[in-house]
């Protein structure tokens, strides 16, 4: 089965199947082309990411934690990088999946894995530029000299594209932790208990529109964050869970909810 959108470039369609196979087809006729089989992985997130294509190079990520660059014309292997930490602290970190789409920007590939690696990799050579210990299931967003990524805990990171230096971090769930802490304090419990028991929403991949990062959550909330400072400038409740990142077109933002609604905001 296929759980991700295909990528169509230069008359070819590229799509990753749930069994860690990259499939290619002729976009006009549907004829099958070359295939690539990544390492098998029994524990993974129920989904797959869409490949990214730059020139004659296709970059795909897999449930095994592999980030692979291939020649788009014939599937020849260019390089393979594993976005997985050597030491993992719990059972969930054993899931090495890269559910978000890899992003190709200014000659680098940016991707984040569920096992706690956010990496910038040289597209041509496959050499890592830098890595950060960030656990994510979303697609990064690169713009100008920075790249943004959202981790599983609901924190947005603004990172220098060239060096990997973190400019700022914004915790989108900090208010929920504070409210829970106040409630726990009233019960005579500690702030640490609140942090352990607070329910943190899952946030979508961000997009950059008019100088703001826009993303939604599975609680139905949409936030607009100042891309330079990390300050949350606006929050809107749509009333339906959001699991897919928004898109921007002609001055409007479009959201597809988990209830199959399409909502446009201006």
Describe the structure in your own words.
There is one protein chain. The protein has 266 residues and is mainly beta. Among the domains are: 28 residues; 65 residues, Thrombin, subunit H. A four-stranded antiparallel sheet has the order 1-2-3-4, with no helix packed on it. Helix 1 packs across helix 2. The longest helix is centred in the last third of the chain and has 13 residues. The radius of gyration is 19 Å and the shape is globular. The mean pLDDT is 89.
Task: Please specify the SSE layout and strand pairing.
Elements (H helix, E strand, L loop, with lengths): L6 E3 L2 E5 L4 E6 L5 E6 L14 E3 L2 E5 L4 E6 L5 E6 L20 E3 L2 E5 L5 E5 L5 E5 L8 E3 L2 E5 L4 E6 L5 E6 L2 H13 L4 H7 L9 E3 L2 E5 L4 E6 L5 E6 L9 E3 L2 E5 L5 E4 L1
Antiparallel strand pairs: 1-2, 2-3, 3-4, 5-6, 6-7, 7-8, 9-10, 10-11, 11-12, 13-14, 14-15, 15-16, 17-18, 18-19, 19-20, 21-22, 22-23
Mass-distribution shape: globular
Which strand-content bin applies to the residues? 35-45%
* Biggest β-sheet strands, sense, barrel: 4 strands, antiparallel
Work out the helix count: 2
The first-to-last residue Cα distance is 36 Å
Using the 3D structure, state the CATH architecture of the domain at 202-266: Beta Barrel
The side-by-side strand order for the widest beta sheet comes to: 1-2-3-4
